[in-house]
């Protein structure tokens, strides 16, 4: 009987403790440029995983698709395989006028318009990253002299609530987005709520580095690579601080 996990296709002991996670599989190609070495691990049901090394740090990295349900499947099975620290590296749509395309955003808390987190963690719980890992991400972004923002972000199930013109609840959705802007929410995305709820419920270290983007593809790629480097350096610092 195979001990291969049903969705991820990997086995116990094949993944590293520290994991960088993307939504888009194409982001794995950007990550490969940053790692000193890497090897393919698995590809199954839309999930793809690699093992890599940067200096003395061994990291599993891969893509879990779009949205919370897909991410919680991947997170659950990675934890079964032995992983214990998870950093999301991804993109986000800009809400705050203070955030410019090309900026880095490090979430300190999530304001949620999604449904999964309340089943994972509970509806009355704050959705926050691991404090020590968050501090390492902020310190690393500061040291790299990259323009960044640390603060609250928005997670949602419905991607197009930012552009609701063709939907019946257009007015309600527009009011919601305006209320988020007025509250100082930095960006909007689809996975941080699930990631942080998983970490809070299961006592795993979680954090995120987001690239604020627009339609400029070259700027987006540059910012994503910067986010990957910040995430890796932060994990190195986190592990060093634990010694």
Structural features, described:
By secondary structure, this protein is an alpha/beta fold. The protein has a single domain, classed as Nucleoside phosphorylase domain (Rossmann fold). The chain has helices at 26-32, 68-81, 116-120, 131-143, 170-182, 192-202, 217-242, and strands at 18-22, 37-44, 47-54, 57-63, 85-94, 104-113, 148-156, 187-189, 205-213. A 5-stranded mixed barrel has the order 5-8-7-6-9. Strand 7 (148-156), helix 5 (170-182) and strand 8 form a beta-alpha-beta unit. The longest helix has 26 residues, at 217-242. The radius of gyration is 17 Å and the shape is globular. The protein starts with 17 loop residues before the first strand and ends with a helix.
Task: Give the SSE layout.
Layout: E1 18-22, H1 26-32, E2 37-44, E3 47-54, E4 57-63, H2 68-81, E5 85-94, E6 104-113, H3 116-120, H4 131-143, E7 148-156, H5 170-182, E8 187-189, H6 192-202, E9 205-213, H7 217-242
Parallel strand pairs: 1-4, 1-5, 5-9, 6-7, 7-8
Antiparallel strand pairs: 2-3, 3-4, 5-8, 6-9
Helix pairs in contact: 2-6, 4-7
């Amino acid at each position: 009987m195979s001990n291969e996990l049903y969705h991820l296709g990997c086995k116990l002991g094949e993944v590293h403790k520290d994991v960088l996670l993307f939504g888009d599989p194409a982001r794995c190609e950007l990550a490969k440029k940053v790692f000193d070495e890497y090897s393919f691990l698995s590809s199954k049901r839309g999930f793809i995983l690699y093992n890599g090394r940067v200096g003395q740090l061994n990291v599993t990295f891969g893509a879990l698709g779009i949205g919370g349900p897909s991410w919680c499947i991947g997170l659950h099975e990675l934890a079964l395989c032995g992983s214990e620290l998870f950093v999301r590296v991804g993109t986000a749509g800009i809400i705050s006028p203070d955030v410019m395309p090309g900026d880095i955003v490090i979430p300190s808390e999530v304001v949620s318009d999604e449904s999964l987190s309340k089943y994972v963690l509970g509806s009355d719980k704050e959705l926050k990253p691991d404090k020590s890992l968050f501090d390492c991400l902020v310190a690393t972004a500061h040291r790299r002299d990259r323009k960044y923002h640390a603060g609250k972000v928005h997670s949602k199930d419905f991607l197009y609530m930012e552009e609701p013109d063709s939907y019946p609840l257009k007015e309600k959705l527009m009011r919601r987005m305006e209320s988020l802007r007025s509250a100082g929410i930095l960006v909007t995305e689809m996975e941080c709520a699930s990631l942080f709820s998983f970490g809070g419920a299961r006592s795993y270290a979680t954090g995120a580095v987001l690239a604020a983007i627009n339609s400029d593809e070259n700027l987006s790629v540059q910012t994503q690579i910067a986010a990957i480097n910040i995430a890796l350096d932060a994990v190195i610092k986190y592990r060093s601080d634990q010694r």
